[in-house]
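Dissemination and training. As part of the outreach component of the grant, students in the summer workshop were shown how a complex can be specified as a set of sequence lines and then modelled as a single object. The example used during the hands-on session is reproduced here so that future cohorts can follow it. Participants entered these lines:
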Amino acid sequence: MNGESSKSAAQKAGAAADGPPGYDLPWVEKYRPRFLDEIVGNTETVERLKIIAKDGNMPHVIISGMPGIGKTTSILCLARELLGNTYKEAVLELNASDERGIDVVRNRIKGFAQKKVTLPPGRQKIVILDEADSMTSGAQQALRRTMEIYSSTTRFAFACNQSNKIIEPLQSRCAILRYARLTDQQLLKRLMEICAAEDVQYSDEGLAALIFSAEGDMRQAVNNLQSTVAGFGFVNGDNVFKVVDSPHPVAVQAMIKACYEGKIDQALETLRELWDKGYSAVDLISTMFRVTKTIDTLSEHSKLEFIKEIGFTHMRILEGVGTHLQLQGCIARLCRINMKKP
Amino acid sequence: MPQDIRSFFAPKGGAAPAPKKPAPPPAKPAKRGRKVVESDEEEEEVKPAPVKKPAPKPTPKAKKEEPIEDASAYFAAAGKNKITRTGPVRAAPPVKKNITMKKLNLEDDAKYLDDDDEDYGDDIFKSEYGKAVEDEPARKKKKKDDDMDLDDYKDGDEDDDDEDEDMDDFVDDNDEDVKPKGRGRPAKASVVKVTPKKPAAAAAPKGRKRKSITPEDDDEEEEDEQPKPKRKATAAAKRKTPVKRKEVEEIEESESIKDILSSVPTVRPPTPPPRDETKKFNYHAYKAKAAAPPPTGTKDIPVGAENCLAGLTFVFTGNQQSITRDDAIELVKRYGGKVTGNPSRKTSYVVVGSEAGPKKLETIRELKLKSIDEDGLFALISKLPAHGGDSTAAQAAAKKAKEEEKKIQEIAREMKPNTTVAPGKEAKDPKSQLWTVKYSPSSMKEICGNKKQVESLQKWLQNWPKNLKKNFKLPGVDGSGLYRAVMIHGPPGVGKTTAAHMVAKMEGYDVLESNASDTRSKKLLDTSLKGVLDNTSLMGYFNTGDKKVDPSKQKIVLIMDEVDGMSGGDRGGVGQMAAICRKTQIPVICICNDRRLQKMKPFDHVTYDLAFRRPSAAEIRTRMMTICYREGLKLSPQAIDSLTEGSHSDIRQIINMLSTFGVSGKEMSFDESRNMATAWQKHVVLKPWDIAQQLLQGHMFAPNSKKTLNDKIELYFNDHEFSYLMIQDNYLKPHPQRASNYSGAEKRLKELELADKAAESISDGDLVDAMIHGPQQHWSMMPVHAVFSTVAPSSFMSGSYGGGHMQFSAWFGQNSKQQKLNRYVKEIQSHMRLRCSADRHEVRQFYVPIFWQMLCRRLEREGKEAVDDMIELMDDYFLTKEDYDAIIELGVGPLNEKSLNVPTAAKSAFTRAYNAASHPMPFMKASNVIVPKGKAAKKDQPDLEEAIEEDEDEMEMVDEAEDAVEEDDDVDLSKDKYVKQAKAKGKGKAPAKGKAKGKKAADEDEDDEDDEPVGKGKGKGKAPAKGKGRPKK
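and obtained this result:
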């Protein structure tokens, strides 16, 4: 009840604050940066983009990186700042929802590149290809010479998650900007701004949980924040993890460490706690796998040994035996690995 | 010191008494006596020098003035400089320091000279001589810089060539001088020099050339010249070798040149790093150890002075203790050193680690290279002064750098007009151009690398009209005369398109370009290009009236860019393109990235292939430096090199990087460039071979590897269908790192253990795979599969790889063979169904061995007599001739196919007899019967042929597809067979041949041959049969 009222309140506030009247935007859209100055993270790269925005003569760019770290936003901001009022005529934006087969490249994009638009000196038309890693290699091939021949009037901007899906000749033609995950501070700063704008009640611990669960993905952090606010009205650690709903990696990590040190009782206790929270065996075991893979304190050899046990347990769970006992057995075997050693 | 000098003089003086022939009036500046180098080479060189030093110069150590100017002017200027180029006069008996300096200089000079020649050719010299005055300003700047330290000193040498040149001059002069008096001696001296280290000698010849001073006898000059080429060739090598400060070297040298050495000892290297001995020692120790334990020590990596390894060349082999090879290489490069892959004469040091490659070790021993370990490397870095101190190598490097800079500035100056003109024409603001456009080469000179290819392209285009007249019958000098079209292929960003356009422009052709952004299907190519192919250019056509038609305007060339980019929608485009290339009336230049692609096959023998390679760092460096200079960026050569390396010599990308960087910065340090190169690294999906190689062979699992488990798992996902199969096929080949601490039997045991673990892990992986690809499709298990099947086995087995190639997974072949055999069994069982109730497995286990004995073995033993019985038995069980062949193939163990040796007479008798009679059929497929025999065969054939071609072409990868094809074939075969059998006997053959699969093919061919004489029925039967037989191979 409480949650619902607060949610609607928040939404009202949002609508009143910024969005066009009549309907609400998700916070992610509502607080999407409009100018390069507002972009959080990847400072150095964004600084460079700002200079480009000021001086014009934008090179072809590929921006790659994890989801939710501002790739598309950067390109849109850059285009907006470069082209200002002529944005509508001088920008062709295509994303994976548009058809981008080789025919579109040959007809629509090439046609756009040939189009004459009056622009101030140093400004070029911009073709934005979002999610470029989903373009077929044939379509990418067709872009090659187009990018060169019309480079005096048209520049291309690609955004993608995996730059290896872009064919090498295109990579060779572009400035490759790799965006890193946002740091916790950067996330925190932006979340605080949003909280202030939306008048959200929060605890520090809640924000920490949001940041932790987002793993550097701003979009996810904002979405989780909105969900938490919508669901519970108050952002604290418990509420956040209820929304996020995955076994807490820190707890799992502690469990693995306990196994490594041979403290089976401690490990089993942690497992019990997690199990009692209602997580499924599959969730638990896959979190264990992920945590083991990245844990710092284990040597690679022991990681591989742990993963072997975890993998087998994973198989058994997937075969249908996802019981508490199964996980306990796994923990016991993990502990034994290191007990044998001395 | 004086003693040294004396010693020098003494030997030399005796040898060449006439040294002081100082034709050149200029007083030689006394050499700066700064460095006392004890390098042997130097000594050698020095010897002649002392003799010569007739005209003592003031000892102006400043190298300010360049030697280039007129000798007199130069000298005047050089009064300060110790060096006088042309002036043969050497500072006669300066202090030993001077001498040593000279020695150094000589070496340097030699190196420099070599460098100069290589880099600039004679132009530089000419320009220097001729335009000395012009150049002076630039030089002076440099000189200013040079004034500072030894480094500066070196720089000065480099810049001005003063010292070096002087040295050269000296040498030359010496030689010359000496020669007149007593050639034998000087010649010897030079020879000696050459042989030991060559630098001085190299220097000498050049010096002469330039200065042409005191030309003694032409003969002498000739002599000199002759040696020159050699010297040049070795010049590069010399640069590096010259690092002689080390005691070890001295010793070696002494061996080689005893006289010199004896005189030398007094001269001690100023900064002799003590490592030489230790290094050597280490090396031996290392050898003794055989396999040093690969502990992960952690050592502090020293911070050295800037550019302190300048001029040194390193080779790394084996695993270092505390630093990964990549890091070590980076370290060396950061400090201006050079890293090469294989030791050669040029190598200054070999950094030896555990598990060093035996070949490299051999080379080391052969060439007597200095080997050090990582401690030695660290010591070098921490002890060497900035810019390599006064070592000759460093000086050489410094000089070269300066020269390069100068050249760059010159080029940059030259470039300006171009760029300014071009924008004017196009009315384009250069500021709004991409750098890649702005600095695209506009003349042959500006193309980086691939000069030869561009030249042959030009030649081809030049000769095209001539060849057209001859109808492309004469191959011409380079064989290009036979082709109407050229195929340029190479990686992206090396200038293929640029070269094609430029050559066309230079030869006066109008360019007609078609690239991947145009639709190029067969039809469109046909209609649109056909008209073009015998057209003339409009430019010339419309000119007819008043002006004379410029013949160059009538020519057009078709440039087909990105031929490999023809893809969906360009159906038949490649084939059509190849057809056009065969008969075109205008030159056609095709461009693609990967010539070896399957789809590029139609161009085989149709086009003249020109492979563009990635240019070397040196080829790119100058150009990039020029661009930087023009744009006001400051980058060190090392930074450029690291960009080059990071982009794999993709020029376009480097320019893009520079332009991106230029937006915000003006100066790029080595580290920045390194980071940038990493960030810009083109990520390309790895091929299965690369994956397996990285995992098994690389240093990925070395204790000091920085690759995380995630990185390794990521490798698996580069190709999750192949990578684990590749690992499975190759995991036994490396010598596991983990076993390297053991030796002898213990080692073998350990290796076995590791292999056991790896094998276990692989089979675990197969269990996981069954879950993924099984009915439940648990794709969430993929990461587990990655670890089990790929990462874990590699972690056990990775290690140095015995030089063999990664083998392609045999699984595909084996798998298809298994399926084939399965099919045989199924077929046999289905034929026997009327007689026995055994299922497939029983047939395989019990019936087939017995049949094998009763049919195949019997035929082998009893020959023709058995034939009737055999056929009767087969008919009883409704077995066909095909089944007979299948049974042979199904034999295992003692029944192995290979142990069977049926006399051909018996075989053919059997075949004949079998074909002569009709045989009972258990059943017939309705579908097969309907098709008329002849037609079926004919119809099938074309299909098969296509499939076959594809199969053959696509190599192993297609194995799966092959399976499918095989299955198809079987259907076809059975069709044929049944059809024919229903009809008559003559056709028995067809099936037989159809069976000829894989290995059997050979045997069966024999059969066929045997059969051929038999009868005519074959003609028909054979043709279809053969068609089918092929795919199975």
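The longest strand of chain B covers residues 313-317. Students were then asked to discuss how this feature might be tested experimentally.
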